[in-house]
Specification:
- The protein has helices spanning 22-45, 63-93, 100-121.
- The protein is rod-shaped and about 100 Å long.
- Helix 1 (22-45) runs parallel beside helix 3 (100-121) and helix 2 packs antiparallel against helix 3 (100-121).
- By secondary structure, the protein is an all-alpha fold.
- This is Vitamin K epoxide reductase domain-containing protein.
- Keywords: Membrane, Transmembrane, Transmembrane helix.
- The chain crosses the membrane at residues 25-48, 68-91, 98-120.
Length: 125
Amino acid sequence: MTYYQPFPAPQAPFVPVRRSHTADVVVTSMLITTYVGGFVLVAFFSLFWVMGTDSCSYQTCNYDNLTWAYILTDLVGGLVLLSTSIAAIVLMVRKHIAFWVPLLGMAVQLVLLVISFGLLDSIVA
């Protein structure tokens, strides 16, 4: 017995397959590596910021600004590095363009560094 269907069976809609962009993966990986190296360098040199307090006595220095400079550069900068690395990896796994994420993280890190330098400049009253 043959079964006749007057209308064709419904088909799934066409969904284009996203292809991984090899160049984007390579560039994003290189930018993340560069960002990690730059962050390690900045974190190392932040150890020497305490020398900015050598010329002041107990009452002429604002040590809170030094603390905030460390927090902004090392702690917040590390959180920005971690979050941008995770976001870039997730975007690469989902096959989206991700090279802009480490660039954004580097820009945020640069802004944090500039703010920290402003705080370091205001340590000695």
